[in-house]
């Protein structure tokens, strides 16, 4: 079920804040452990049979751990691996984003994700959903095969192509932004056409008005309008996983 987004009176693009702070292991309600060779923030009942894997954007954002805690409270075992290997992108630090991406290819991260998936399954998990944010959406869409996960959510994706969407084998939802030069609404509409044509795979695309790229995890917590938009996307994601990760 999709929720209608209420139009905000002002553009929340100004509310998006790129967080690039290194997060301490004690930040959040969970803890950090080695999972499949990666330092991973985990939370949720170790007895749960259902898991959600969160793949971050290029930043190390506190809001992602907050989201992991929220998903864990809904009954999932949640894992947030450090696919950035302790090296998140830091703007204006002498390295361009393009150079950073050369050192952090999504294909490498996809390979890193495979042992993480196996480690999660070794805990007795029987179903896994994966959500990818921006850079992480490329890894999530590569994982959207039956042998890896049972459902995927791509939030303001980067690097995801129409051909990627054509290859998904599990239910896939795409949550995009009205103002997004990386994945503009025109591209998201093409994703929607592909998903609609895939009768064997459920999927949908939802474009949130009055928000910009990164709005689901990079926002100012004191901005109630921005938080509301992010929380609506979080709720849509949770509903998708509740429907298909079981």
Describe this structure in words.
By secondary structure, the chain is of the alpha/beta class. The protein has a single domain (31-244), classed as 3-Layer(aba) Sandwich (Rossmann fold), CATH 3.40.50.1820. 34% of the residues lie in helices and 21% in strands. It has seven helices and eight strands. The chain has helices at residues 62-73, 97-103, 106-121, 135-143, 162-166, 185-197, 224-244; strands spanning 31-35, 38-43, 50-55, 77-81, 127-133, 151-155, 172-179, 203-212. An eight-stranded mixed beta sheet has the order 1-2-4-3-5-6-7-8, with helices on both faces. α5 (162-166) links the parallel β6 and β7 (172-179). The longest helix has 21 residues, at 224-244. 45% of the residues are buried. The model is unreliable at 1-24 (pLDDT under 50). Pfam families: DLH. GO terms for molecular function: hydrolase activity.
Helices and strands, in order, run as EEEHEHHEHEHEHEH
Q: What profile does the largest beta sheet have?
A: 8 strands, mixed
Shape: globular
CATH topology: Rossmann fold
Please identify which CATH superfamily we are dealing with. Alpha/Beta hydrolase fold, catalytic domain
Task: Let me know the number of strands.
Answer: 8
User: Which range does the strand content fall in?
Assistant: 15-25%
Number of H- or I-type helical stretches: 7
The structural class is alpha/beta
Overall mean pLDDT? 89
The first-level CATH class name: Alpha Beta
Helix content bin: 25-40%
Low-confidence stretches: 1-24
> How would you name the oligomeric state of the polypeptide chains in this document?
single chain
Architecture (CATH level 2) name: 3-Layer(aba) Sandwich
When the domains are counted, the total is 1
How large is the radius of gyration? 17 Å
User: Can you list the strand order of the major beta sheet?
Assistant: 1-2-4-3-5-6-7-8
Q: How far apart are the first and last residues' alpha carbons, in Å?
A: 17 Å
């Amino acid at each position: 079920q999709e929720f209608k987004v209420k139009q905000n009176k002002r553009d929340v693009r100004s509310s998006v804040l790129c967080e690039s702070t290194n997060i301490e292991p004690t930040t959040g309600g969970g803890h950090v452990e080695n999972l499949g060779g990666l330092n991973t923030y985990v939370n949720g009942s170790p007895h749960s049979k259902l898991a959600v894997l969160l793949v971050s954007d290029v930043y190390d954002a506190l809001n992602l751990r907050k989201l992991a805690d929220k998903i864990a409270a809904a009954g999932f075992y949640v894992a947030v691996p450090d696919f950035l290997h302790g090296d998140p992108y830091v703007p204006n630090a002498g390295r361009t984003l393009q150079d950073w991406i050369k050192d952090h290819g999504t294909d490498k991260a996809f390979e890193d994700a495979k042992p993480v998936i196996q480690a999660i399954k070794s805990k007795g998990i029987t179903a896994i959903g994966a959500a990818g944010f921006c850079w992480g959406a490329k890894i999530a869409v590569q994982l959207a095969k039956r042998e890896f996960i049972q459902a995927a959510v791509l939030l303001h994706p980067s690097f995801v192509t129409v051909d990627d969407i054509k290859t998904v084998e599990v239910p896939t939802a795409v949550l995009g932004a009205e103002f997004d030069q990386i994945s503009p609404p025109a591209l998201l509409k093409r994703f929607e056409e592909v998903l609609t044509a895939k009768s064997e795979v459920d999927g949908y695309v939802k474009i949130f008005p009055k928000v910009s790229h990164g709005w689901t995890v990079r926002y100012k917590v004191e901005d109630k309008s921005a938080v509301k938009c992010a929380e609506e996307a979080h709720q849509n994601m949770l509903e998708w996983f509740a429907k298909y990760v079981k």
